Amino acid sequence: MEETARHPLVVARLARDMTIKEFVTGIRAAAARRGLRSGTDEARVRKWQRGVEPNAESQMYIAEALGWPADVVRADDWPNWLPLTADGVVPLGPHSSVPALREAQRTAMERRTLLTISGAALSALAADWAHGPTAALAQVHDGKPIGEDFIVFLENTTRELASLDTEQRQHTAVLLDSYLSTVTDLLTRGRYTPALGLRLHTLAASLSQTVAWHRFDLGRHTHASQNWIAGLHNAYAAGDHDMGAGLLGDLAYQAAWRNDHTTAASILNHALTRAQNPAARCLLQLRLARTLAARDGQNERRAVLRALAAAEKHLNDAGTDRPAWCAWVSEADLAVDSGQALLDLGDIGRAHQLITEGERLLPAARDKTRGVFLTYRAASYLDQKEPEPAAAAATQSLLLARRIGAPRCVKLVDDLLPRFQPYRQAQGVQEFLQLAAA
Prior knowledge:
Layout: H1 2-6, H2 8-15, H3 20-32, H4 42-49, H5 56-65, H6 97-107, H7 119-130, E1 144-145, H8 148-162, H9 166-169, H10 173-189, E2 190-191, H11 194-217, H12 221-238, H13 241-257, H14 261-272, H15 278-296, H16 301-317, H17 331-345, H18 348-361, H19 367-383, H20 387-404, H21 407-420, H22 429-437
Parallel strand pairs: 1-2
């Protein structure tokens, strides 16, 4: 019975709150729209849910009964093509980690890129995570045996890929996708103990996070969201609350990037309920300060300053024992993010000092972050009506972003272009605008 309940067809049907009887009615209606008659009944649906594969024609009817066009069907990949959610978010549960990974893979196939995941759905997911079980959910699984040496190989290689310099990481997207697909297949079909399962879920969470940032940097927001969500499910299965909080923090960062600061603040407040590592809490507090300041800086001033003070304290408390996903958090990040928050509060002079200081402190290995920081510095110069140094910083950011393949940094520079138009006669501005147009 447990295997039946985990079948993707059951998950997809229940996500739409459909009984088997309603599902059968939908299948027959899909056939009737073609002038045909389907012999599908409840008994046949139950067979499909136990693993019997429907023919290609029935799969088209199944897609339409679930509210999706027939062109999502890949008949040779049953049941993996099934969409599992109505709103893009697989609900958290004891067996949700692999369905969430499959959902992310399906989204990456470009079939449902127009799906927008609502802020309400993301906030609800964060709330479910915050109130979920505290213990790991990883369980024994019986399939093809997996050797520990192979898992060690995957773990080590994944770490090496993640540690490459920014300029080299732009070449790793396809490789990371293949690793994540391999880990998903191991979780689905492999034989492993709870201990090895925990390591696989942890690896899936880490890979999903890295893949999500690749998608986000390319502006593929739906794909990024689904990978962060898949990572959250696997961190949940591994009982890694700091990792889960970090993945929620990434979803909040994306929401803030898209100017949905209400959703970002809601997600971050849920994430902070379980994050324990000081470095993790520092990062979450910095993001909370930024989004509160951007949402309503004057009315949120006290909350923003509290979050910044908390972030500074957590950074001072953070030692060398940090999760890999936030090991990079440093004085540079504290300075720049504090400066950005202060910009929204109207403290332009102090903000400019902090942003400049943070960019100076940043290590050479973090070139993509340097590109982002340089655009922040350019914006702070523009706020002070100093177009010459603004153009110099924006030019440096654009050249860097193009060299390392960082479209997100390029977009930040593009967003500044209208602000340079009144200063076309200032030194360096015309040259910058020509470079941006090239």
